[in-house]
User: Fold this.
Amino acid sequence: MNRLPIPEPYSAGVLLSYKCSGACKHCLYACSPRWPADWISEADAERVLSQLADKMRGKYPFPGQVGVNDGVHFTGGEPFLNFPLLLRLVEIAEWVGIPTTFVETNAFWAADDASTREKLRALQDAGLDGILISANPFILEQVPFERTERAARVSRSVFGGNAIVYQGLFFEQFQLMGLTGTLPFEEYVERGGHALRHVELFANGRVPYKMAHLFEHRPAATFFSASCRRELIRDWHIHVDNYCNYMPGFCGGLSLGDARDLDVICHGIDLDRLPVIAALLEGLGALYELGAEWGYRERAEGYISKCHLCLEVRRHLTRHGEFAELQPAEMYERLED
Assistant:
C-alpha cells in the first residue's frame, strides 16, 4: 500500500457551513447564500474538536493568545448565521481543552452596539478567546463598512488584543476614504485599487473566475513542474468542513479523509485510492495528464496560477468521474456563483 503520513495538525479552522451572507469574489471555498444550510452537527463537532485538542495539547506556550495561525478558529461560510450553534461549539471547544479559540466573521450582523456587545460577551463567557473581523474590498461590496467598524471597535473593548482585523491595511484605507455603506469592487479599484498590490490575495478559489482580468494568464505547461507536496502535508492552518472533510491548508474541495478519524489520516492516507492527491504530490503536470485521461483540454486563454490549473482539472474530474478526495463536489459548481 502506498501511504503518505500526514503531520498532526498544529492549528485548524472549523467550517460551520458553506452558507454565507455573501458570495465574495475572493472566497477560497466558494461560499454563498445559495448553499444549503447543512450545519455541522454537535456530535461531529465534538468528535473533531476533542481529537484536535489531543493533537494540540502542550504545543502552545501562551494558550488563550490569538494569532491567525494558532489554535482553532470557527469559520465558514459565515458562522454568525447560526449563532446558537456557534455558541455551543465554543462551549464544546472549551470543555475538550482547545488551547486557543477565535471566530472569523464578515460582521454582517453588527447592526448596533448593544446587540453586537451582547453576542460577543456571550461568546466570551462560553470560552471564546478572540475574534477575527474580515476587512477587504470584497466584503465591502456586501457589508456596510460601518458594521465592520462597529464590530472592530466593540470587539476590542471585549477581547482587547485578541481582536484582530484582517486585513488591517484595507480597514485603515477605508477609514481614510471616509467610507460608509457598501462599495462595488469596480469602483473601489478606481478609487483605491493600488492597495491590492500590498496585500495577500490567493489566486485560488473564486478568484480565477471573478478576478482573472487582474492577473497575467499563462499556458498550462508553465505550471507542470510545480508540486503541491508542501501544501498537502503542512500541519498549520488546516481546515475541517461541516461534512468532516479534512482539507489541507487553503485547498477547498480537496479532502484527505474523514476528520472524525484523525489518527487514521495521520497514520497515512492511501494514495492508491486517491489518484488526484497522488498526482498533485508528483506535480501539476501529472494532474494535467490525469485530467487528459478523462477528457480535459487546456483553456485557450490560459491560467493565472497553479491553483487555477488545479481547480480547472479537478472541476472537470468531478463532472466526469467519482473521486473520493474531491469533496464536497458542490463546491466546484459554486465557483462562479
